[in-house]
Amino acid sequence: VDLYRMNSGKGVIMDSGTTDTYLHESIAAPFEKVWKRVTGGRTYSNAPVKMEEKDLLLLPTVLIQLAAYDEVGSPLQGDLEKFPGLAGKDVDPTSPMDVLLAVP
Asked: Which of 4, 14, 92, 98 is the most buried (most CB within 10 A)?
């Protein structure tokens, strides 16, 4: 995924006041391909879908990296491993304090 393209225009929208999350159109085709494979050809929509656990486990895990505010030094710098959910130096050495979300 082209990060510049994904973060330009409308980008990705995450609203903590709702349950809605909109991912960028650049990942629509790969997501739709996996969705159709798992759901037996059903087109993705916002309508509820009943799935067995085995099918749910086939869905792709989407990782969302939230950029940390790095204008101020952090007291966590030396202890990043103690805080689950951070990117850490192994995943992203340039932004180890970013938060990683795994969906679903």
From this structure: 98
